[in-house]
Amino acid sequence: MGRPRKETPNRADGLYEVKVTIGKDFNGKLIRKSFYSSVSKADAKAKAEQYKIDQAVYKATGELPEPSVMTFEKWANKWLDTFKKGVVKDHTYHFTYKSNIDKYLIPYFGKAHLMDIQQIDIQKYFNTVRSDSGEPLAKSTLDKHKLILKSMFDAAIDNDLCYKNPVKNIRFQHVSDAAVKHVWTKEQAETAEKYARHCWRLDIVLYLNTGLRRSELLGLKWEDIDFEENTLHVQRAVVQTKGKIVVDKPKSATSDRIVPFSADFGKYLKKFQSDNEYVIGNDGIMSPATYSKHFHDFMKKMSAATGVPELTPHELRHTYGTLRREEGVDIYTIQKVMGHADISITASIYVHNDIDVLKKQLKL
Length: 364
Hints:
The chain is mainly α. It has three domains: 1-69, no CATH class; 70-177, DNA polymerase, domain 1; 186-361, Intergrase catalytic core (hpI Integrase, Chain A). Helix content is 49%, strand content 10%. It has a three-stranded antiparallel beta sheet. A two-stranded antiparallel sheet has the order 1-2. Strands 5-6 form a two-stranded antiparallel ribbon. A hairpin with a 2-residue loop joins β5 (237-241) and β6. The longest helix is centred in the N-terminal third of the chain and has 21 residues, at 41-61. It starts with 15 loop residues before the first strand and ends with a helix.
């Protein structure tokens, strides 16, 4: 009698799949889970049975067998330590990854097993997650959460901790990031710059003439400025992480750039040149926290004196880009000068001004 014929894989990708009931979801409903094998259907069934045994052991002892049972919280921390800590900038690690995982993702998914989390659970998270004030999170924040979750589950699949990535075809509501951004008009910018020059506030004048980020402004050294060519080289940034001041490279590769400025501004800037290494700060680096206080105090004083509304450093940077766009500067030039990583970023911020720009250029 011949050997029994081998069963044909029941999936198009050549894998054997077995579905079994393995527990309940967040709502208490029974859930079915797929187990896969490239060897045989029996092997897939064995994996399913082993998974059930591992779950029972965990419930009885609290011990997590590796790798078949792994909680979201444990994997999130392991993923952070392995794939992000020391790999990305310290500031990025804490404020992009760890803070979002600790504040939002772990409190929601917590002790759930990675293999128990399905697409519907991910979608429910994005449907219900809210800020401390009860508002839907901004699109940029939700995009980060989606990116983090996708990367975590991709790594989990690579390490045989689950078989599918549930972060697929996810949609979410959000607070529009396209809300009105506050900027000064040309007249307001001229009034503010005149007042700032009178008060010897170089930082305000720098923002309006170069469009630097706050971190780049605090990292600017006199050696970065070429008074003959009237340019400055952005090649470092100062950030504050958990009370520690960090001097690092700019935000992205495109942020390392040469920014030209006018001859008039060059003459004004040269008046401030000193033996201090950094352009902003009387004795070494000024901390972002200290600078923010000085900046806020001056903004209140200037607004009271001139009637010009208070802006943040980022809004001053945005004012620079907006005024250049209104002058007819193309978005590719603006992208390069402002150091945006992608032209789509520049376009999404400044393209809404195109109609006004066209009308001015056509003298309509």
